[in-house]
Amino acid sequence: MMTPMRYIVLVLAIIISFHFILSFSHESYGQTINFDNLKKQWSAGTGSSGPPYKAGVPSEYIVPNNYTIPDRKANATFVILARNTDLNGVISSIKQMEDRFNKKFRYPYTLLNEQPFTPNFKARVQEITHAPVSFGQISPEDWYQPSWIDEEKATKAREEMSKNNVIYGGSVPYRNMCRFNSGFFYRHPLMQQFKYYWRVEPDVKFYCDLDYDPFLIMQDQQKKYAFTISLYEYEATIPTLWKTVKNFIKENPTLISPDNAMAFLSDDGGENYNRCHFWSNFEIADMDLWRGEAYTKFFEFLDKEGGFYYERWGDAPVHSIGAALFAKKEEIHFFNDIGYRHEPFQHCPQGAAHSQGKCWCDEGDNFDYEWYSCLNRYDRLF
């Protein structure tokens, strides 16, 4: 007869053994958490969709990735400019984009870097999306400061801006980025196959579910440029930009769209720049606008002046001025229902748009009509 003490020992042994078996099962499952891998395991050698129970997880808790991809899509991509050190920020932004929108639509991602992306960077990005992902390196001639820039003059400008605490005033890499985004990203070989792009930055937030396709809005309504946040540019970064723009207009009057959005840029018919621009860290646009004759000549004109390096011209005012001059005002679109934040500003949809999008931003924290916003000037265009 088994003594009480032996009975207790036997029960403890059974519990410990059962716990070990469960732990081993969960460790094995942890290696196959990807749903595609699970489906492959289920169907291997069975000729069916798989058993009702796998690796310790009841079948009713398994949610396969079975979203139906829409038949009609635009020729578009997300574009992300990033360095290898931006990995965590890139992961955060893509994960939110997938959860809010792209898991239903699976538009491709195009990531660009002046250096080769590391294997770890590529692997981690590809783990969080079923959409195609391309990784491209930027050519040195498109990224680095051109040889014809007077380095002595550029150095003095950087030192002066640093002394005056101008943000990124002393940075050459930041200037390289602004010039690349202004005139080269849409020329990259990986971007040539696409017409539309949605620019995504590391460490941004997307607050609302999107049940429709913004790219098709751009395509079907013939929009050229779209934004969520607009504001005033830092004057110390662009002291001669508008003078250069006026010189270009004087030399190329026929390139300006007759029904343009000059009133967004200027309060006196173009004599002076009010510094309003669309914040280009979020933009959805038709690259034919940048690839066309007007903007091509415009960028080349600006580039020859050297203001990207002698001052600190940003791609936001350059793109904004280009869109306002070379597109019709009705071709510029405000995506009111896309909740978005790039520190320190955010657009948070209001009212019905907030509830319909299941937005998780605070409606009270909304930059749209703050004193430093230019959205009211956009509104007055119509």
Can you walk through the features of this model?
- This is Glycosyltransferase family 15 protein.
- It comes from Pluteus cervinus.
- The protein is of the alpha/beta class and 382 residues long.
- The protein folds into 2 domains: 21-66, no CATH class; 76-379, Alpha-Beta Complex (Spore Coat Polysaccharide Biosynthesis Protein SpsA, Chain A), CATH 3.90.550.
- 42% of the residues lie in helices and 13% in strands.
- The chain has 16 helices and 14 strands.
- The chain has helices at 4-30, 35-43, 87-105, 119-127, 140-143, 151-163, 172-183, 214-220, 241-251, 262-265, 287-291, 293-305, 307-310, 315-326, 352-356, 375-379, and strands spanning 53-54, 57-58, 76-81, 109-113, 133-137, 196-199, 205-206, 225-227, 230-232, 276-278, 283-286, 332-334, 340-342, 345-347.
- Strands 5-4-3-6-11-8-12 form a 7-stranded mixed sheet. The chain has a 3-stranded antiparallel sheet with strand order 7-13-14. A two-stranded antiparallel ribbon has the order 1-2.
- Strand 13 (340-342) and strand 14 (345-347) form a beta hairpin.
- The longest helix is centred in the first third of the chain and has 27 residues, at 4-30.
- It is globular, with a radius of gyration of 26 Å.
- It starts with a helix and ends with a helix.
- 32% of the residues are buried.
- Mean pLDDT is 87; it is low at 7-58 and 60-64.
